[in-house]
User: What shape does this take?
Amino acid sequence: MENVNIHKTAIIQPGAKLSPGVSVGPYSVIDSEVSLGDNARVGTHCVITGQTKIGQNCKIYTGAVIGSAPQDKKYSADDNVFLNIGENNVIREYVTINPGTTEGGSKTVIGDNNLIMAYSHIAHDCVIGNKCIMANGATLGGHVTLEDNAMIGGLSAVHQFTRLGRLCIVGGCSKVVQDVAPFSMCDGHPAKTITINMVGLRRAQFDAEVIKILRKAFKILFRSGLSKKHALQQITEELPMCAELEHLVFFVKTSERGLSN
Assistant: This one.
């Protein structure tokens, strides 16, 4: 453990892998099967445990508990399960993240450049993409998927097995029980699709023609009164196909919980 900065009160268990530039703050515990990438920073009173791998340049703030046992009755202490966290993630105060379960693929996976704000929870077998934001107190049940650039408002809860599509935004205090379409704004209790995420699309510098196509697709999907099957048929027959529309159509076709609409 050369070129690391470990506070004298921190506990680093034998076997833990700490890369160059890692710092660990007062009273934090790093267990034996944990791996921390280059320049990862762990704050005060954190616990990182289990078979947990954290990539370079991650910042973990006070009181976070990363890699603790899944909150699943089927979980056994003998299960061989994992938590993989990518690079450049910010994990704020008192966040909790669980590894996978054997029935769910044994792995929770978090990508790169995500912001997970204070008191958020990521349950077992979740898959988080890149550049996602979970505001304070946001909660993901087990087996939830967040595609890239998804944003969840504070104090919102997402039901297990639900998917949140690329560049969607969920309003604060929402109850999400069905899939949230890519590029959408969703809000409510239960959450419903309000409109297209115009601000997000513009900030992501989407082409104006692509935005126009997506707006037409949303009107057909959510305002025409057509069934999912017939709405998709009309979209594919009437609208010029682009990569973003292909992604939206595929997401809707593969939805098992139905869409929040």
Q: What stands out?
A: The first helix runs from residue 198 to 203.
